[in-house]
Amino acid sequence: MLSKSSLKDRNLNVRVSSEQLLVIDAKACLSGTTRSNFVINMINERWATRLAKAHRPYVSIAGNLLEISKKIKSLQSRKIWSDIDQRELDIVVVKLNDTLTNLINRIAADQEVDLNDRNEKETFE
Question: What is the mean pLDDT of residues 86-102?
Fold first, then answer.
């Protein structure tokens, strides 16, 4: 359960609802920092904009793959394909879906590693 004040962000005094706290915690986790540092950076450096730009390549790749996947699916619905063509299309769709899943898992793993590294550094400081 999330608390509105943890040891790492005891210097941050902000009144927020539980929903807002979840959003702040999620964004802090994505940026690999503590809640208090995230809010301070967001205020001082417009961190949210920088975070969006940092993750834009992932979003672009995933968006392109998803668009290709949708186009192939729409082609699959047409009945003009031979059985061989249909099987090949099915294989491509499966590969694209696997690629999207791997991309999502990679993003999560990268963020988790970065967050763990930052937490270890904070612990030693």
Answer: 76
